Amino acid sequence: SDGSIRLHQMTSEYPLMQWNDSTKGQPIIALQWALTRPAVFFALDASSNIYVWDLLENDLLPVAKQTIPSEKVVAMTVLGEPEKANGLLGIVLAKESGQIDIQYVKKKWALP
């Protein structure tokens, strides 16, 4: 609820990494790992900002931020085919009106 993200290992109650105020205090609505690249995950905050984290490129801050200005995004999920090496990865966004938007991710964040 405060925009903090914690990375846990299943065998410990303490986080391996913790990023405080990663969304400038906005609650995180959804967080999804990339299906094709294990070091990448996406976070959606309550202000319809999508943050791209690539832990191999930068483990302190998101590597990109995309604002969806047209309408509030209420849900997010990731699609892709991890068994294929084509690097096709997309983000599905559900907007408040019920509209669904699919955005494809840059290859550098999608390739295995």
Reconstruct the topology from this structure.
Layout: E1 5-8, E2 15-19, E3 28-33, E4 40-45, E5 49-54, E6 64-67, E7 73-80, E8 89-95, E9 100-104, H1 107-110
Antiparallel strand pairs: 1-2, 3-4, 4-5, 5-6, 7-8, 8-9
Question: Which terms would index this structure?
Answer:
mainly beta, three-stranded antiparallel beta sheet, 112 residues, 46% strand, single chain, 1 helix, four-stranded antiparallel beta sheet
Nutshell version of this structure?
This protein is mainly beta. It has one domain.
Number of strands: 9
Q: Strand fraction band?
A: over 45%
Distance between the termini: 31 Å
Main sheet makeup: 4 strands, antiparallel
Give unreliable regions as ranges: none
Per DSSP, the total helix count is 1
Q: Would you tell me the overall average pLDDT?
A: 91
Strands in their spatial order, largest beta sheet: 3-4-5-6
Percent range of helical residues: under 10%
- Count of separate structural domains: 1
Structural class: mainly beta
Rough outline: globular
| Radius of gyration from the alpha-carbon trace, in angstroms | 14 Å
Give me the strand/helix succession.
Answer: EEEEEEEEEH
Organism: Erythrocercus mccallii
GO molecular function: dynein heavy chain binding; dynein light chain binding
InterPro entries: DYNC2I1 (IPR042505), WD40_repeat_dom_sf (IPR036322)
Protein name: WDR60 protein
